[in-house]
Predict the structure.
Amino acid sequence: MRLTLLYFSPTHTTRKIVSAVGKVFFEKMLCETRIADVTSLAARQRAYPFGQDDVLIFGAPVYGGRVPALLLPFLQSLQGNGARAVALSVYGNRDYDDALEETCSLLEGAGFRVCAAAAFVGEHSYSSLVGGGRPDAEDLLAASAFALAAYEKVESNARIGKRVPGEKPYKEYSAFMSAPKRMPAVDRQKCTRCGVSLNFLFDKR
């Protein structure tokens, strides 16, 4: 049995929520724990094997009401092999629209059994005036409380019952959120895939 905390978190807000939920699971399970930050492209190109007895806590931010487009190939490539999963979305205090339902659907499609799901507020990546300082202490307490309930669902191997908000067909990605039509010139022999070129999209928090 292994617990995996897996997250995409350019501004570190999603990491805080996943860590708060994961801490409760670790204290309950006391098992081998793997932390996988897949914010960088290099991390998303690694293999993350799962077995039937494993538990995944997965979190991603909401971009335009959806799972970030660049995450889709990675999530579709995962092989859950029946592992149980908890899905988390972190949104900039507006709405998470289809993102949480899409996350659950992607995980189920990859062979995970989604037992619980929740959305939490994080500071907006464009402006600290929207959801400033979130997740705050109360948010992290709420994440811990959710984790206790989620753990019971995971322990009982129950598939998520209540319908998760979100509707198909999902919202279309805006031009900004979809793959750019023009890419900058890159010297591939010098590129180390550090992800620094993405910093212009996010505040360095």
